[in-house]
Structures are given as structure tokens and as C-alpha cells.
Design a protein that fits this description.
- This protein has helices spanning 20-28, 53-68, 79-87, 114-121, 152-159, 168-178, and strands at residues 2-8, 33-37, 43-48, 74-78, 101-108, 128-133, 136-142, 163-167.
- Strand 2 and strand 3 form a beta hairpin.
- A four-stranded antiparallel beta sheet has the order 2-3-1-4. A four-stranded antiparallel beta sheet has the order 6-7-5-8.
- It is 34% helix and 27% strand.
- With 179 residues, it is an alpha+beta fold.
- It contains six helices and eight strands, in the order βαββαβαβαββαβα.
- It folds into two domains: 2-81, SP0830-like domains (Alpha-Beta Plaits, 2-Layer Sandwich), CATH 3.30.70; 85-178, Alpha-Beta Plaits, CATH 3.30.70.
Length: 179
């Protein structure tokens, strides 16, 4: 059995509300086992025999669209991949220890092209740091969130890839609990 974490984009925004117990039943209907959710922001942990994450993303997206009536982009990572994302230090070990610093991980389906990486690097400012590591974009913000000129949507658009962002604290908690 393979254990995965599905990061769902915009499951509970735009007037949509999906209770986590209902989300679990939707994943169980796909014959996944040991289904659990982690906070109400669309993080679903599950086991399956399949090792084809792209096919799993497609299967989940089709099922959620049929069940919920709207698109829910899905980004799957294995537990070791989530642990690696949580442990990765794109801005140095002390970056997130500063109380005025926030860091997010944007999960995308594939690594951005070289041109996409160059464009992402071009978004750096005194407030915002951007770093790409494989299928993750790390976004660090010095100061408050309102000080940033960036957004997850802008990072996606710049990379020319869909994605979904999670605070590094959430990613680390997932890694600690399931890793």
C-alpha cells in the first residue's frame, strides 16, 4: 500500500463548504483506505495500491467534480515527499524563526520550465523571496502578509502551472503526524 496526501485547491472557498467527514466519504467511495483529513483546508491522507499519482489526481478531480459540481484541482505527494518539503530550507535555517516571517509551499504538478523558474526568480523583492525545488515553489514573506505584492495565484500564473499553497506550519505538522 502507498500512503499519499492530496492537497486540494479551493475546496472551501467561493461560497463552497465541504465538511471534512463528507470529504472523507468521497475519498472512501474511490476505494481508498485509511482516509483522514487534516484541518479544514483540503488536506486528505489516504492509502491505495496505485503508484500512478497523475492518474490518481485525475481520478479524484473527476470524482469531486461529479459529486460537488465544481472543479477541485488536486496535487498528490507521497508521505516521504511531504517530509522532504517540510524539511527543505530554501531561505536558510533561521528564516522562519523570525516572528515577522511567513513561508508557504505551493504544490504544483510538475517542475516549472527553465523560463518559468527565471520568471519566478524575477518576483523577488525586499519583502518576498521565491525559490523552486522540483514540484514545490517556496514563498517567503518578510513582514506581514499585507506587505507582500505576491499571491499564490500570481505564482501559479508566473510559473504557467496550477498549484495550491499551504503554510509551512501545516506542511510540517502533516510531515510530523504521518511521516
Amino acid at each position: 500500500m502507498n500512503r499519499y496526501i492530496a492537497f486540494l485547491r479551493a475546496i472551501n472557498v467561493g461560497g463552497h463548504t465541504v465538511k471534512m467527514d463528507h470529504l472523507r466519504t468521497l475519498f472512501e467511495a474511490l476505494r481508498f483506505s485509511n482516509v483522514a483529513t487534516f484541518i479544514a483546508s483540503g488536506n486528505v491522507i489516504f492509502d491505495t495500491k496505485s503508484a500512478d499519482t497523475r492518474a490518481l489526481e485525475d481520478k479524484i478531480e473527476r470524482h469531486l467534480k461529479k459529486a460537488l459540481g465544481y472543479d477541485v484541482a488536486t496535487f498528490i505527494r507521497s508521505v516521504p515527499e511531504v517530509v522532504a518539503a517540510a524539511e527543505y530550507q530554501p531561505f536558510g535555517p533561521d528564516a522562519t524563526r523570525d516572528n515577522g516571517y511567513s513561508m508557504f509551499v505551493v504544490f504544483i504538478r510538475e517542475a516549472p520550465s527553465v523560463a518559468g523558474q527565471r520568471k519566478l526568480n524575477g518576483l523577488r523583492t525586499e519583502v518576498d523571496e521565491v525559490h523552486v525545488n522540483g514540484r514545490e515553489i517556496y514563498w517567503g514573506i518578510r513582514g506581514g502578509f499585507s506587505d507582500s505584492k505576491l499571491s499564490g495565484a500570481l505564482l501559479e500564473k508566473t510559473a504557467s502551472l496550477p498549484g495550491t499553497a499551504r503554510n509551512i506550519t501545516t506542511v510540517r505538522k502533516l510531515a510530523a503526524k504521518y511521516g
